[in-house]
UniProtKB/TrEMBL annotation:
PANTHER family: MOLYBDENUM COFACTOR GUANYLYLTRANSFERASE. One of its GO terms (molecular function) is nucleotidyltransferase activity. It comes from the Bacteria. SUPFAM superfamilies: Nucleotide-diphospho-sugar transferases. The keyword Transferase applies. This is Molybdopterin-guanine dinucleotide synthase. Residues 9-155 form the MobA-like NTP transferase domain. Keywords: Transferase. Transmembrane segments: none annotated. It comes from Blastococcus saxobsidens (strain DD2).
């Protein structure tokens, strides 16, 4: 088994969740845990775990920080999270991924060759908040407060590989997020059918 370098994890858990009535998305439950708990479980082996967002409940040992300005978007949030990262490799996840797994994060870590590697969904769309990166490259991409506010634009100059994880028939993809009441309901219905 390939020995992988240590890594940190930054989980972006901000946003207004306007389509969910303003409720704080990462703290909503899917199955027997909150979505933020699912994301943090997927990176349980990280050297450090950082959650970026408003004050909220996080497990002991997890650093909670806030972007500047508060509500400033994912680029500002990532910049704030990276300030607490000391490893050369960092996983970046959205806080509303109830089906992300540690095995997927491990596969992304194994595939990291250049500046970053991210998941591509079944429609071919980059999932920029589900990837593993060289910390220094990511800091350069988002370090300028006057730079692009859109994350995909900020990352556009990096050398990025893409990975489309296989999704067995009948299983839910790890990139499924919960932006709308319908997506949240679907995630909860899937979780209710999961064994155990």
């Amino acid at each position: 088994m390939q020995e992988l370098p240590p890594y940190s994890a930054v989980v972006l858990a901000g946003g207004r969740a306007a389509r969910l009535g303003g409720r704080h998305k990462p703290q909503l439950r899917v199955g027997d845990r909150t979505m933020i708990a699912a994301a943090l479980a997927a990176v349980a082996d990280a050297s450090s775990r950082v959650v970026v967002g408003p004050p909220q409940e996080v497990p002991a040992g997890v650093t909670l920080t806030r972007e500047d300005p508060p509500g400033g978007g994912p680029v500002a949030a990532l910049r704030a999270g990276l300030a607490a990262v000391e490893t050369d490799v960092v996983a970046v996840l959205a806080g509303d991924l109830p089906f992300v797994t540690g095995s997927l994060i491990g596969e992304l870590r194994r595939r990291l060759q250049r500046d970053g590697v991210l998941v591509v969904d079944d429609s071919g769309r980059d999932q920029v908040l589900l990837g593993v990166w060289r910390s220094a490259a990511l800091r350069r991409a988002v370090g300028d407060p006057a730079g692009p506010r859109a994350l995909f634009r900020a990352l556009s100059g990096l050398a990025v590989d893409r990975y489309r994880p296989p999704v067995p028939p009948g299983e839910v993809p790890p990139w499924l997020d919960c932006d709308t009441p319908e997506e949240l309901a679907r995630a909860r219905e899937v979780a209710s059918r999961a064994p155990g």
